[in-house]
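For reference, the entry.
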Amino acid sequence: MLELVSEHACHGGVQRFYKHDSQAIGLPMRFSVFLPPHADGARLPALFYLAGLTCTEETFMIKAGAQRVAAELGLVLVAPDTSPRGAGVPGESDAWDFGVGAGFYLDATQEPWAKHYRMESYIHELRELVTRELPVDTARVGIFGHSMGGHGALTLALRRPDLFKSVSAFAPIAAPIHCPWGRKAFTGYLGEDEFAWADHDATALMSKRCAPFPHGILIDQGLADKFLNEQLKPELFETACAAAGQPLTLRRHAGYDHGYYFITTFIEDHLRWHAPQL
């Protein structure tokens, strides 16, 4: 059951924030939805946006400036939180890149994280919830995200291309097995077996597949991003796509960093890229 926390008129539609009890997480979770203006009874295409480290369900809706174009295109925008809240795991708030605000969009298998840190299952649960309770067409859902959320968007789409018709990312953690953020998260959530990590690494997943998205994948990356060389590694994903025959548009932008000034600059491009596919 959805609990409406707040709603705000926005570009002819409505921006809402919801709370609900999640079966996947075992705790209350929050998410945000922008509903564009639409006729009664219409079923609309939707884009799920997965945010990055330290963010919440509010970050994208407040900072990205996506609602104007979404209203024009008739796209529903859905943004979940980035981790469980209130799980009570010892040390879960000790680091900004692991634990609270850093669920990495996977299901933890290691204790004490395995009980509540089940963000991959939660995204699928949320997809079913919004297509059931809101005017969303279950057959027309895309996914995109930023940084940790770009990792999540790519991996969830590659793991379940039957559920997501389109995928794009801003500055994704494209090869987490090969970067400190990813290795820290995977060790903590999944354990020491690096073979299991490959199921949650976009570059490794792409190496096992043959063009699961024939209409292409779009990635934007700022060249002034301080995390580019150590943490993001889009060139590894680019190489894997080329080997798999997966069409990829990887745009590199001089002067742009990792933050939302970068995202707000190119958000319209992403929405207009997804819309025809949905």
The longest strand covers residues 136-146. The mean pLDDT is 97. The CA atoms of residues 12 and 225 lie 35 Å apart.
